[in-house]
Amino acid sequence: MLNARLYMAQRLSAMIMIPLVFGHLAVMIYAIQGGLTTAEILGRTKGSVTWFLFYGTFVAAVSVHAAIGVRVIIHETFSLKGKWLEATTWLIGALLLIMGARAVLEVTFA
Amino acid sequence: MIRPHRSHPLWLAYFLHRVSGLALALFLPFHFLLLSMVISQPQTADALLRFTDHLTVKLAEGGLVFLLAVHFFGGVRLLALEFLPWSGKRKTITAAAIAFAFFVSGSFVLRAV
Amino acid sequence: MTEARANMMISVWRGMGSTGKFETFEVPAQDNQTVLDVVTWIQQAADPSLSYRYACRVGMCGSCAMMVNGQPRWTCRTHVKRVLRDNQIEIAPLRNLPVIKDLATDMDPFFDKWVKAGGVHRASRSRDMPIQEVKPDTAQRQAADNGIECINCAVCYAACDTVSSNRDYLGPAALQRAWTLFNDEKVVDKQAVLDAVSGSGGCHNCHTQGSCTKFCPNDLDPLGSIAGLKRETAKSFFRRGSKQC
Ligand code: SF4
Ligand code: SF4
Ligand code: FES
């Protein structure tokens, strides 16, 4: 259930995430060595505009990408369409965006 | 059970992409929740992060990285197939994507354990 | 001299509409025999009420496609040797299309989508104008040529899982037709071609499973054509975006 606009949103968000995923994988591999504690995570991220932009962009892109992806699965599995499908797409996107934004804000600014 | 009309590499790649994508989408909310807890409930978060020291959890995490890697390289493969006109090498690209995914997640698990 | 050999056990789908079941027939094996020959033998020698469809018997008309052991195939060009397993073959009507009776499916949805994807020819010249010269060796013409051998057999349509899960999806054959028209220099309004494949059932729903290309009996590449449409619609998306700003 994709038209050209949703398709472009899906593919563009994917392209944006290519470098971000690389960065995130690197961070994970680095952080996992020696185990990580709350203090360690915060020490690196607090007040850092770079981290805010990095993960902020990531969260925005992943919300768009996942919402559209799950939309397709829902349509193809349950034949849901029309306004309910639209509503579900927006709901998933909004939920991920809000939760993600909260997480990013907490670790960078709060 | 793989039905006969599906038994070929590109269909399998599609299937992996869908399953990994769905799993990641389901995992994300929990991931965000944990990160939010880092500030609001540092004790719980620390307990949870310490919990990630267990071997089984490490393996589960490796599984997640594997999913991410599968979805990532599978996605790059799709973008390449869709936007670059090199139709002849589809199976090679697909195989490379899966190999990369194993490599990345494999090295992650080895480092973590 | 053909030696007497064990009979083959052929399961054939029997039924009207959405109900039915497999019925097994014993069919004498021959040295040279296509799946269509087997079906014809059953209808002529065992059960004249068996319904199926064919016309040319040489892979030209596209009317004989069926599911053979769960895979879509043109039966007139499928040798029994290639599909016989343990002396058995299972033959069913094409997937993803409503069954009329036994092995005959209703092809209307397939052709309706062909038309919906803009598949009909729209002339850009009148009969009074000189015939347009088409150079056969340009890259664009070759891209158009890649799809013109389509015989409308709907094998790709039956192979595609996106067709089964998304009712509106135009399907590989119709989209490939659109790609052919897009590359045909006789077609003037390219944007109309792209618009016809950009709706909710359009090319963007394809998951690149490639079952279409895998099974197309003419070795055509609908998957590649659909990728071409995705590229061109993406370009036109940006073109339009910049025009609107
Ligand atoms: S490549 Fe696209 S059209 Fe072809 S079988 Fe797969 S989903 Fe269907
Ligand atoms: S593209 Fe191939 S499989 Fe599909 S209808 Fe045409 S000839 Fe048949
Ligand atoms: S009978 Fe015409 S293609 Fe098979």
Automatic annotation (TrEMBL), chain A:
> Coiled-coil annotation: which residues?
none
Write the record's keywords in alphabetical order, separated by commas.
Heme, Iron, Membrane, Metal-binding, Transmembrane, Transmembrane helix
**Gene3D superfamilies, alphabetized:** Fumarate reductase/succinate dehydrogenase, transmembrane subunit
Question: What residues form the membrane-spanning segments?
Answer: 12-32, 52-72, 84-105
List, separated by semicolons, the cofactors it needs: heme
Whether Transmembrane helix counts among this entry's keywords is: yes
| One Pfam entry name | Sdh_cyt
Localization per record: Membrane
Domain of life, source organism: Bacteria
Function field = Membrane-anchoring subunit of succinate dehydrogenase (SDH).
Designated name of the protein: Succinate dehydrogenase
UniProtKB/TrEMBL annotation, chain B:
- Residues that span the membrane, as ranges: 12-39, 59-80, 92-110
Q: What does this protein do?
A: Membrane-anchoring subunit of succinate dehydrogenase (SDH).
**InterPro entries xrefs:** SdhC_prok, SQR/QFR_C/D, Succ_DH_cytb556, SuccDH_FuR_B_TM-su
Sorted keywords for this record are: Heme, Iron, Membrane, Metal-binding, Transmembrane, Transmembrane helix
- Compartmental location: Membrane
Q: What is the first-listed, main subcellular location in coarse terms? A: membrane
Concerning Gene3D superfamilies, the annotation shows:
Fumarate reductase/succinate dehydrogenase, transmembrane subunit (1.20.1300.10)
Identify its protein family: Belongs to the cytochrome b560 family.
| Descriptive protein name | Succinate dehydrogenase cytochrome b556 subunit
PANTHER family xref list: SUCCINATE DEHYDROGENASE 2 MEMBRANE SUBUNIT SDHC, SUCCINATE DEHYDROGENASE HYDROPHOBIC MEMBRANE ANCHOR SUBUNIT
Under the subunit heading, UniProt states: Part of an enzyme complex containing four subunits: a flavoprotein, an iron-sulfur protein, plus two membrane-anchoring proteins, SdhC and SdhD. The complex can form homotrimers.
| Cofactor(s) for this UniProt protein | heme
Please name the SUPFAM superfamilies in this protein's record. Answer: Fumarate reductase respiratory complex transmembrane subunits
Please name the source species: Mesorhizobium liriopis
UniProtKB/TrEMBL annotation, chain C:
Q: Does the keyword Iron-sulfur apply?
A: yes
What interactions and quaternary structure are annotated? Part of an enzyme complex containing four subunits: a flavoprotein, an iron-sulfur, cytochrome b-556, and a hydrophobic anchor protein.
Which superkingdom is the protein from? Bacteria
UniProt pathway: Carbohydrate metabolism; tricarboxylic acid cycle; fumarate from succinate (bacterial route): step 1/1
Instruction: Provide the family line.
Output: Belongs to the succinate dehydrogenase/fumarate reductase iron-sulfur protein family.
Q: Give the required cofactors.
A: [4Fe-4S] cluster; [2Fe-2S] cluster; [3Fe-4S] cluster
Supply the name of the protein: Succinate dehydrogenase iron-sulfur subunit
Q: Which residues cross the membrane?
A: none
Please tell me the species this chain comes from.
Mesorhizobium liriopis
What NCBIfam families does this protein map onto?
dhsB
Q: Which PANTHER family match?
A: SUCCINATE DEHYDROGENASE [UBIQUINONE] IRON-SULFUR SUBUNIT, MITOCHONDRIAL, SUCCINATE DEHYDROGENASE IRON-SULFUR PROTEIN
Q: Does the keyword Iron-sulfur apply?
A: yes
- State the UniProt keywords alphabetically: 4Fe-4S, Iron, Iron-sulfur, Metal-binding, Oxidoreductase
InterPro entries given in the database record: 2Fe-2S_ferredoxin-like_sf, 2Fe-2S_ferredoxin-type, 2Fe2S_fd_BS, Beta-grasp_dom_sf, Helical_ferredxn, SDH/FRD_Iron-Sulfur, Succ_DH/fum_Rdtase_Fe-S, Succ_DH/fum_Rdtase_N
As recorded in UniProt, its EC number(s) are: 1.3.5.1
Residues forming the 2Fe-2S ferredoxin-type domain are 8-95
